[in-house]
Amino acid sequence: MLATQEPPRYSLMQMVLYMLRLGALGFGGPVALVGYMHRDLVEDRRWITDAEYKEGLALAQMAPGPLAAQLGIYLGYVHYRMVGATLAGLAFVIPSFVMVVALGWAYVRFGGLSWMQAVFYGVGAAVIGIIAMSAKKLTQKSIGTDKLLWAIYLLLVVVTVLTESEVAWLFIASGVLVWLLRAPPRWLSRSGVHAAALTQAPLTAGWLGTLDAPLLTQIGLFFGKAGAFVFGSGLAIVPFLYGGVVQEHHWLNDKQFVDAVAVAMITPGPVVITVGFIGYLIAGFDGAAVAALATFIPCYLFTVIPAPYFKRYGKLPGVVAFVDGITAAAIGAITGSVIVLARRSIVDIPTLLIAAAVIVLLWRYKKLQEPVVIAAAAMAGLVLYPLLRH
């Protein structure tokens, strides 16, 4: 049994209730959600140390799957182990799952969501302001004045902007670089063998996805592959889902898929929960449940299985250096993703003004609640969008 140095300052129920609230009210996708966790759990409540947070962020960034969900699972694990990880993960995901299933029902029942474009027009711009502020805080807190970490950070910003995706091997390479420069090992790891084996795993999953199987089984296999082999969560999983859902399996058409992405952006919680909406459109509630479980179970396992080793060896100089490198890369990719998403959400002068207003408000009023900002932006979208399009 691993012992923590200090007893937790919070109960398991308090952590579960926090994750439940974050899942129900946390807008902005993975960039904003990891920022909220740092602000609330590290800075304000001090339930989690900055080192523990950085360990969780590094582990979540190294492993495939939804970034924010994995970080939430790890933070639940820190003091309450498997039970904490399981309950924190469920509490974080369930509120947004319920919402997207309800929206899926409304979408099917009423033949589409015509109001969604208007809402997303305002909310999408506000989200850019929210995630820009989150990225700024994470950068100031974790990068500081360290020149090596700044170089890694800026490289990942540029790569993310140019490729519009998160290049997974650069996270590992960044960690290895800082490790080799600051705490050179006396022996070489054999992780290259494991990495080589992992490169074959997507091929295996691709073969499994082609098997002739009942619909729910096909859904489970496809979304399991999405959860197990896609890095970057909200930013990277969308093109992967499009390739499988629309182009390969023809479960949805282009308009339905775009609506599914919009649902993910206008609902709180992890962006990847759009899999629940997609699953509902394909096969009703059963499809939603299977898609969500298949996507999140791999990320849960990728978090709790390595977690004890992060806790046991996290203070070693080599591990600290490795985590610092990956954290700098992760925050660089997060900052780059703000620019990528802004290109798609800032489409005219009104959206630019909405994003700028959100940044100013969050800068000026530190305690301003994001759900209030999102609600105001949604109302602005409902008013402005019809006027600008007619």
Give the number of helices: 16
Can you count the beta strands?
A: 0
What is the chains' assembly state?
single chain
Strand portion, in percent? under 5%
The SS-based structural class is: mainly alpha
Low-confidence stretches: 189-212
Helix content: over 70%
Biggest sheet character: none
Rg from alpha-carbon coordinates: 20 Å
Gross geometry: globular
Compute the average pLDDT. 82
Give the CA-CA distance, first to last residue: 65 Å
Which series of helices and strands comes N to C? Answer: HHHHHHHHHHHHHHHH
How would you characterize this protein structure?
This protein is 79% helix and 0% strand. The chain is mostly helical. Helix 4 (67-110) packs antiparallel against helix 12, helix 5 crosses helix 16 and helix 11 crosses helix 12 (274-304). The radius of gyration is 20 Å and the shape is globular. The termini are far apart. 49% of the residues are buried.
What's the quick description here?
With 390 residues, the chain is mainly α.
Question: How are the elements arranged and paired?
Answer:
Layout: H1 12-25, H2 29-44, H3 50-62, H4 67-110, H5 116-142, H6 147-163, H7 168-182, H8 191-209, H9 215-229, H10 237-248, H11 254-266, H12 274-304, H13 307-313, H14 317-345, H15 349-364, H16 370-388
Helix pairs in contact: 1-4, 2-4, 2-5, 3-4, 3-14, 4-12, 5-11, 5-14, 5-15, 5-16, 6-14, 7-14, 8-9, 9-12, 11-12
